[in-house]
Each structure stands twice: as C-alpha cells, then as structure tokens.
C-alpha cells in the first residue's frame, strides 16, 4: 500500500511532547521494569500472566501522545507492534528512533477516517501477522470545540467518522484476525467526556459515549470468540492534542480545581492501564470502561475552603 513502511523499530527515550523531568521518570520506570523482568522473571511468574511475549498488536495513532506511550509500553512487555498515522515523516522518525533501540515495531501511513485506507491497513496487518492479531488498540481520536449550534454538517461528520465510524469499522475488519488468535483483546481510548458534560464538547462526548456502549456490546457479542473489549477514559493528559487549550493559565487552574489529584495526567498513566487490559492477567475483565482522571469524574463537591463551624 502507498506509504507502507516496514522498519524494525524500538524504544525512544525522548517523547517530544513530554518534559525533561517526565522523560527521566519515564526512563526510570522502564529501567526498573527491565530489571524486574530480567532478574527474577516477574514476567514469567504466574505462567506468563504478566507477559505479552509473542503477541501481536495494532495501535492506531502511535506517533504522538497517548498512542505513542502505548506502543512503547506494549513493546516493553514483548508484543510485536504495528502502528499507523497520517504523517509519513513523523512515522518514519518514530520508527527510526524505535529501531535504534532494537524494538520490533512496524508502521503504515493511514488516515483511519478513510474507509479504503482502513481496508489496506488491515490487509497489511493480516499479512504481517499471518492472519492473526491479539490486540487492537483503537486510539485515534480528535476534537472540535464549539457550541453545538455552531457545528457545521462537515465538522459533525468529520468528528463522527474519525472518532467512531473508523473504530467501528476497524473492529469489524479485525474480528477474524482477533478470533483466529484465540486470545483477542480490544482496548478503546474513550474519554471522561463519554460520561460527563464538558464545555463545548457535545459532539466529541457523543462519540466517546458511543464508544463506551460499543465496548460493552462487543464484550458480550464477541466473548464466544475469546475476544475481550474494554476502554480507558482519560481526563486531561499532557499531549499535543490539548496543548493549546491548556496554554491558558486560568483554564489550567480550573482544571486543577476539578481534579482531586491536582495534576494533569501523563501519557504513561494511560498506557500502563492499556497494557494491563491486554495482559493475560486481566483475562476475566471485559466490557469495562475505566477512567484515568485523577478522580475528576467522581468529584461531586470538594471545596478548597474549610467553612468554620458556627
Ligand atoms: N489528551 C487528552 O487529554 C485526552 C483526554 C481524553 C481522551 N483522549 C483521547 O486519547 C486519544 C489519543 O489522544 P492524544 O491526546 O494522544 O492525541 P494526539 O496527541 O493528537 O495524537 C494523536 C495520534 O493519532 C494520529 N492520528 C490522528 N488522526 C489520525 C487519523 N485520522 N488517522 C490516523 N492517525 C491519526 C496522530 O498522528 P497524525 O496526526 O500524523 O495522523 C497521532 O499519532 C484520542 O482518542 C483522544 O480523544 C485524549
């Protein structure tokens, strides 16, 4: 297919969109994982319940933000990865960086909002992984922030297509591969916007709400095929997608005030949960949508000021 890139790839210490301090934390957490795996085989303890060795995975949108963190963490657990993005330049840069670290990641240029390109992507994945796929991470998603009555038909269609239709179709296309693997796991990147109202995000929230219900429906419908279906639902995570909206100090303060843990999330806060949901260790968990939100979605009333008793 046009723009299909196959390179042996690997781990990158620098994530472009995260700060130096986070990169150090990032590297340290990986280092300690490596030590625990190589020294006393924590990965093999429990009959491989904590390992993805030999498993295959497709992660959409793996060149930046949350998707990139998922690629890099899944690889650390032994999975063979294929990812995609629209930018060939960015994909090539990632693949080169990963390759220099010795990880097995391949990639395709693919706009998942395009039906034909989705078909080509899954053909590539199928031939690469011999007709089997263990893990599908439906991560691509975007946003248009504006009041509902200002949405044009084109904007509405673009959001619905990128955030939901593409995901629905990718599930259909990969179903035979997931089933053939004998142990399939789908993880969707949803959002807290699928549960609660967020300003100027009615349409994006509707796409995530649809993903949440698809998560539950596929869990039941495809259980007989040994395919699990779960979703992660983040609140604000430090990625390029939300850089602009979080550049306002005032807005950021509002975000902190609504977040019990009083910080933004890191992409790794999400990727660790995604990995868990793909591991054999979580094999009895299906149909769940788990928030990664510092407590935002359960924060009913948390006044900063203590009211003196009279
Ligand atoms: N960041 C947050 O605060 C947050 C909160 C809740 C939920 N989420 C969800 O988390 C997911 C990832 O968000 P993110 O913040 O990591 O986004 P991001 O930083 O914008 O990264 C998006 C990734 O997806 C790729 N991509 C975007 N559109 C694509 C398309 N049509 N076809 C193929 N690849 C595409 C991008 O590469 P190209 O641009 O080169 O294609 C990039 O690799 C989304 O579903 C988002 O809704 C994010």
Shape: globular
Ions and ligands: NADP nicotinamide-adenine-dinucleotide phosphate
Q: Gyration radius, to the nearest Å?
A: 19 Å
Tally of contiguous helical segments: 8
**What is the helix fraction of residues, given as a range?**
40-55%
Instruction: Classify the secondary structure makeup into a structural class.
Output: alpha/beta
Number of strands: 8
Query: What proportion strand?
Result: 5-15%
- Mean pLDDT comes to 88
Poorly predicted regions: 1-42
Strand-and-helix sequence, N→C? EHEHEHEHEHEHEHHE
Distance between the termini: 73 Å
The quaternary state of the protein chains shown equals single chain
Report strand order across the widest sheet: 1-4-3-2-5-6-7-8
Main beta sheet strand tally, sense and closure = 8 strands, mixed
InterPro entries: KR_dom, NAD(P)-bd_dom_sf, SDR_fam, TR
GO molecular function, one term: oxidoreductase activity
Protein name: Ketoreductase domain-containing protein
Organism: Trapa natans
Describe the structure.
The protein has 8 helices and 8 strands. An 8-stranded mixed β-sheet has the order 1-4-3-2-5-6-7-8, sandwiched between helices. The N and C termini lie far apart (73 Å). By secondary structure, it is of the alpha/beta class. Helix 2 packs across helix 8 and helix 4 runs parallel beside helix 5 (153-181). Residues 1-42 have low confidence and may be disordered. The chain binds NADP nicotinamide-adenine-dinucleotide phosphate (NAP). NADP nicotinamide-adenine-dinucleotide phosphate binds at residues 60-67, 84-87, 90, 110-113, 139-142, 162, 189, 191, 234, 236-237, 239-242. Belongs to the short-chain dehydrogenases/reductases (SDR) family. SDR65C subfamily.
């Amino acid at each position: 297919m046009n723009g299909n890139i196959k390179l042996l790839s690997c781990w990158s210490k620098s994530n472009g969109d995260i700060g130096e301090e986070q990169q150090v934390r990032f590297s340290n957490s990986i280092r300690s994982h490596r030590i625990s795996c190589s020294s006393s085989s924590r990965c093999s303890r429990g009959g491989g319940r904590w390992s993805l060795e030999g498993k295959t995975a497709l992660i959409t949108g793996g060149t930046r933000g949350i998707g990139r963190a998922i690629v890099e963490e899944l690889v650390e657990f032994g999975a063979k990865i294929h990812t995609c993005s629209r930018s060939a330049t960015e994909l090539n840069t990632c693949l080169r960086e990963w390759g220099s670290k010795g990880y097995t990641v391949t990639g395709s240029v693919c706009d998942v909002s395009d039906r034909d390109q989705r078909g080509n992507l899954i053909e590539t994945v199928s031939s690469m992984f011999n007709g089997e796929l263990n893990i599908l991470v439906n991560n691509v998603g975007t946003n248009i922030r504006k009041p509902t009555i200002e949405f044009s038909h084109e904007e509405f269609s673009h959001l619905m297509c990128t955030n939901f239709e593409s995901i629905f179709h990718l599930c259909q296309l990969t179903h035979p591969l997931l089933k053939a693997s004998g142990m399939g796991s789908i993880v969707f990147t949803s959002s807290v916007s699928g549960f609660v109202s967020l300003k100027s995000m009615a349409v994006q929230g509707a796409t995530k709400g649809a993903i949440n219900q698809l998560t539950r429906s596929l869990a039941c419908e495809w259980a007989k095929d040994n395919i699990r279906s779960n979703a992660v639902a983040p609140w604000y995570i430090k990625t390029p997608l939300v850089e602009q909206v979080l550049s306002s100090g005032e807005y950021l303060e509002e975000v902190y005030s609504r977040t019990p843990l009083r910080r933004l999330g890191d992409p790794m806060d999400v990727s660790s949960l995604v990995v868990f949901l793909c591991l054999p260790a979580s094999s009895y968990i299906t149909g769940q949508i788990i928030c990664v939100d510092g407590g935002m979605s359960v924060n009913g009333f948390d006044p900063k000021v203590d009211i003196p008793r009279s």
